[in-house]
Amino acid sequence: MYQGLGRRKTSVARVTLTLGTGKMIINGKDIKDYFPYATLIQDATQGFVITKTEGQFDVKANINGGGFTGQAGALRHGIVRALMVSSADYKPALKAAGLVTRDARVKERKKYGLKSARRAPQFSKR
């Protein structure tokens, strides 16, 4: 049993990998029922494709916060961290693919006096 914690935007994924047949359960649901788009499933399982371990591990994950995209990114990060715990041989390939680093981009907060994070109110001369 290997564990990894993944984060992306405001989402946090606690991932547990166990040797198995490739079954993926996220928040008590199958991955195909949890994520609405196939591209999100591809994104989340990218670590298995790079390390050529598809179907070797069962994934059980709890994901909190954010939307679908952030949750898929957090799941990918958690899977990659758990894979690195399972075998240190995977780290060079995963690092070369850019999956080890946390994607820290978060929505910028709104500032007072502005309409959004940087958008100022329209200037009126008169």
TrEMBL record:
InterPro entries reported for this sequence: Ribosomal_Su5_D2-typ_SF (IPR020568), Ribosomal_uS9 (IPR000754), Ribosomal_uS9_bac/plastid (IPR023035), Ribosomal_uS9_CS (IPR020574), Ribsml_uS5_D2-typ_fold_subgr (IPR014721)
Entry keyword annotation includes Ribosomal protein: yes
Protein keywords: Ribonucleoprotein, Ribosomal protein
GO cellular component, as recorded: cytosolic small ribosomal subunit
UniProt keyword Nuclease present: no
GO molecular function: RNA binding; structural constituent of ribosome
GO biological processes: translation
Pfam family, one: Ribosomal_S9
Listed NCBIfam families: PRK00132.1 (NF001099)
UniProt similarity note: Belongs to the universal ribosomal protein uS9 family.
HAMAP family: Ribosomal_uS9_B
Name of this chain's protein: 30S ribosomal protein S9
Naturally occurring in which organism (per UniProt): Hirondellea gigas
Upper classification of the organism: Eukaryota, Metazoa, Ecdysozoa, Arthropoda, Crustacea
